[in-house]
């Protein structure tokens, strides 16, 4: 038995690949690493758009205002 890991960026290509693998009776196991990779890509996109937290001039004050439900140390 051989194991192969693939990364497919295009959803249409991914669906086509799944159809082919199904036809060939290849066992497909999805990986949570792909979800993690997608999540990292989304977060990097946010950072690139300026959402890295640099827009908050006083992070401590901002956090205290945000979390009034319990005191911060």
Please indicate the percent range of residues in DSSP E strands (runs of 2 or more).
Answer: under 5%
| Low-pLDDT residue intervals, each spanning 5 or more residues | none
- Major beta-sheet overview: none
In DSSP terms, counting alpha (H) and pi (I) runs of 4 or more, how many helices? 3
Shape: elongated
Q: What is the alpha-carbon Rg in Å?
A: 21 Å
Cα end-to-end separation: 55 Å
Summing up helix and strand content along with how strands pair, one would put the structural category as mainly alpha
Number of strands: 0
H/E order of the elements?
HHH
Averaging pLDDT over every residue, what do you get?
A: 82
Percent of residues in helices: 40-55%
Whole-number count of domains: 1
Secondary structure topology:
Blueprint (H helix, E strand, L loop, with lengths): L10 H13 L8 H17 L10 H8 L7
Would you give an account of this structure?
With 73 residues, this protein is an all-alpha fold. The chain has one domain (11-66). 52% of the residues lie in helices and 0% in strands. The protein is built from 3 helices and no strands. The longest helix has 17 residues, at 32-48.
Summarize the structure.
The protein is mainly alpha-helical and 73 residues long.
Which descriptors apply to this entry?
mainly alpha, 73 residues
């Amino acid at each position: 038995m051989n194991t192969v890991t693939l990364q497919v960026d295009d959803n249409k290509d991914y669906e086509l690949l799944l159809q082919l693998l199904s036809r060939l009776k290849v066992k497909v196991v999805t990986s949570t690493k792909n979800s993690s990779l997608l999540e990292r890509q989304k977060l990097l996109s946010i950072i690139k758009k300026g959402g890295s937290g640099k827009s908050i001039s006083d992070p401590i004050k901002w956090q205290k205002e945000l979390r009034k439900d319990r005191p911060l140390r």
